[in-house]
Amino acid sequence: MKVFLSHSSSDKDHYVRVVSKKMERDRIIYDEYTFEEGVKSIEEIDRGLNSSDLFVVFLSENSLNSHWVKYELFKANTLLTESSKLERIFPIIIDNRIKHDDKRIPDWLRENNLKVVISPNKAVQLIHQRLIEMSFSKHPKLAEKNRIFVGRNDVIEEFEMRINDFRKKVPAFIIASGLPTIGRKKVIYHSWIKTDTIKYSYIPPIINLDSHESIEDFVFKLCDLGLTERRKIEISISTPLEVKVGIAAKLLYELRDEHQRVFINDNGCIITHSRELVGWFKDLYEKVSEIGYMVIGIASKYRVYEAYQYDYENIMFSHIEELSKSERERLFYRYLQLEDLELLSQDVDFFVGLLKGYPEQTMYASQLIKQLGVAEAKRKSHLIVDYNTDRVVEIIKEYSEDSHALGILALLSEFGTIGYETFFEVVGNDNANYRYLEEFYAKGICVNIGTNKEYIRLNDIIHDYLIRMSLKLPNEYSLAITKSLDAFIHDYNQDEYIIDLTEYQYMIKRALLENKVENIARLLAPSHYLKTMKELYDIRKNYKDVIILADRVLTNESFIDNHIKQEIRYYLCLALARKNDDRFHQEVRKISGAEHDFLYGFYYRLSGKTDKAIERYEEALSKRKKFARAQRDLVQVYLSIDDFETAYNLAKENYKNDKKSNPFHIHAYFTSLLRNSRVEDKSIELNKLLSELNKNQHNNAEEFYLRCKSQYLAYCENDEKQSIDLINEALVKYPNNHWVLMDKFYICVKFKKINELKKIHNDFVKNYTNNLASNNNTLTKMKIIIASLEGNNDVIPSLISELNYYPERVLEKLRTRYEIN
């Protein structure tokens, strides 16, 4: 469908050109894009109008006095009423001086609900809304797909009761918690539909906030929607918190006045992993207590404490569970009908049995059947069972030999979210890049977000997977980004409006990473520091600069929200522990709860104090049951002391919780399973894990595969030659990796190759004993094993006594194994 943009040339620069840039070129008739050399003529106008479905006229003092606009209005009305070539006319007042009863507006046009729309972004949103309504009318299946919604009756009923309870205020915020893709926003959306809060054609814009963001990002992203008064964002790191909350509150009142609502994907910014509402949001709640309007719908990763439901009357909380079995079946039937598919009842039972209660998985199952047919979809049913993990692996594998596609994916993973214009400025405007982007949309690799879908955002699961792959940016992309960064630093004018927020945020992070912040220090917000610290720690392993940035930002800690302050200090403590800096103890005292214990566990693990590390990790897990980082580290501690039985259950749980895609979890589970003498019939599971490592694209996956495969050949196949050959191949590829050398040591233990064991021992002494305190214990274990194989049992008791900070139960097991009284 095409849209004709009728306007005065005098309104082009400040309004209409902004609208045109936010819309796809092929969908609009706009003189600068459509007419030859941008020059209007009667013939060009008639041709454009005859090919249009929607006529949008921007009403202002300028346009109402324009003979071109008057002609276009006359012609559009004729096409609408006499020939039905045009489907709809949509007038938008863009000038405060024009009133709906202005005599220059034709009578037939005044019959429309004429409103002033000062924001070009809001105009684009309204145009999109009209296009959706027309699309639903033309293509009923699109409307049907949008309206498919099954179950959740108790939640919808609770919502209706709350809205109709006139003894209480209208909730300003609706919070739906639950797992990603469980349908949290869909529940809020249909609740709003059911209570006549919005129309089906209204699609609220979405902003994303994560645990490393705070109120500054909330304000930036609301402003970036362009649905409120256009303003400069004047927030710096030293802006008092109450001022930031006041700005945020004003934005929410403006959204209400513009009849707008916004969705937020909250991944720990508003509701934290400890199930608390962050401080700044509590303050914001107080500021908008009289708003009387449902302005924000929040899809939260975490479920808030039940007590909040009584303390915060102006917020409605719901937790969204998986669909029940009957709801899964009903939803599956709806999608089958949408795809014009008819299945035998036994086939329906088969596919419904694979579903786990995620609406997106149900839709994917119907699409897979449509694409492959019933028999082939059954054969590939693992794609439905593990639809997120396996689908990601299969999709990315398609591009493993395509350097151009991998380069684009590297760029998308570098930004996470990137504006259209920024994207094409970096990759270039050639057709191949457009084709790749369309392909990525079609496969669900990325989606459009923003009020007018002007940003490209990677699917979260795919983004995590690509980050683990450590894809390298092509040189030409890096050069383009560096050039843009230099221009940003030298040319940025604080009085300018931010055009592309994702580019702005990314350039500030790059400036911090490259220590080029002198000219833009006034722009920095706490989240800029935190995200940069995270990258320095996780990816670049630059612990010294993490400490420098943390110290710099914490000089303003009185202006920073407590949650984001804790996150900054958390990375500071991790870096101090890595540097074995005694200041760690001073800083960790300022962190409370499970994180405090986790950080001490981490510190003791690095110090080789195994018993203390276990004690602290277990304390952290007692305070927070689902603490993945503590559980992951605890597994590594147990593996380091060969306590495979204790490690096994934790490693298995980590592996399953991470959707089987993290090679570190696969490797830990494989090792604990392989070496666990209490588990029998493990061959099938071990081979499955090897297969997952073999097809995993993470840059550590090949190393883990070679190590695991060589151990499997040794322990399960008893194949000395192949296992030794394969671990030697791993040593050639990863010559400085002491874990590979240790795997070879244990393979040689299996085959009692004493001379080779002594050689490995000497290599370890030469290269690794000074790196970590825990490596001294590793060396002692080697001596114990070699002494045992040589029959030199008299020295073993004294060697066991040299094992520092080992739990007593583990030492007792060693004494029993070597028959020491």
From TrEMBL:
Gene3D superfamilies found in the cross-reference section: Tetratricopeptide repeat domain, Toll/interleukin-1 receptor homology (TIR) domain
Domain TIR: start-end pairs: 1-135
GO BP terms in the entry: signal transduction
Pfam families named among the record's database cross-references: TIR_2
InterPro entries membership: TIR_dom, Toll_tir_struct_dom_sf, TPR-like_helical_dom_sf
The protein's name in its UniProt record: TIR domain-containing protein
Originating organism: Acetoanaerobium noterae
